[in-house]
Amino acid sequence: MRKMMLVGRSESGKTTLTQALRGENLHYHKTQYINYHDVIIDTPGEYAQTKGLGRALALYSYEADVIGLLMSATEPYSLYPPCVTASANREVIGIITKCDHENANIAQAENWLRLAGCETIFPISSYTGEGIDKLLEYLSHDTQKIPERI
Ligand SMILES: Nc1nc2c(ncn2[C@@H]2O[C@H](COP(=O)(O)OP(=O)(O)OP(=O)(O)O)[C@@H](O)[C@H]2O)c(=O)[nH]1
Ligand SMILES: [Mg+2]
Predict the structure, then answer these.
(1) CA of 36 to the centre of ligand 2 (A)
(2) Do the Cβ atoms of 64 and 5 come closer than 8 Å?
(3) What is the whole-number distance in angstroms between the Cα of residue 40 and the centre of ligand 2?
(4) Whole-angstrom Cα distance, residue 59 to residue 63?
(5) Is 77 within 8 Å of 12 (Cβ atoms)?
């Protein structure tokens, strides 16, 4: 499986998604630090929300094959500047979380992730399991193309 780093503001659902991807029981756990040894690299939301700490995300992205940019479907605003994915030299996918929520606006979250530069976007719910299989399938495929000739 390709190694994915999850990035998104606090409460966007990174840790809950990590638990859902692992098939664990969902329980609240505040992320305090980056554990980059795991196949899913969960990060504290404060790192994406604080300019100084954001540099650590850039550094740890080198440990991952894929960066997952999370956006809750209940989000009232977008944290991500337009075309921010261009600053990563890894594949960046969008993940819309909390699609089950009664106030979910999936289309709006998708627009913001597209504006950020995400071409591949997974709408998911860690609560209902919606979209988790597709995300796991995506991570299990190695899309890196080996050149036929150098
Ligand atoms: N309705 C709904 N709520 C969710 C879902 N996923 C997470 N939540 C809730 O959102 C809240 C925050 O979830 P976390 O997974 O802890 O968020 P986080 O992004 O890891 O937050 P930090 O560790 O602070 O960066 C918790 O109360 C979760 O129960 C979901 O799929 N649906
Ligand atoms: Mg967390």
Answers:
(1) 14
(2) yes
(3) 12
(4) 8
(5) no
Ligand 1 contact via 8 beta carbon (within 6 Å): yes
pTM of the full predicted structure? 0.94
Mean pLDDT score, 113-139: 98
Q: What angle do CA 63, 64, 70 make, to 5 degrees?
A: 130
Give me the pLDDT at residue 141, please: 85
Reported CATH class of domain 4-140: alpha beta
Ligand 2 geometric centre to CA of 148 (Å): 41
In our burial notation (b when 16+ CB lie closer than 10 A, e otherwise), range 105-126 reads eeebbbebbeebbbeebbbbbb
Q: Tell me if 100 CB under 6 Å of ligand 1.
A: yes
- Can you read off the two tokens belonging to residue 150? 């150098």
Domain boundaries, the chain: 4-140
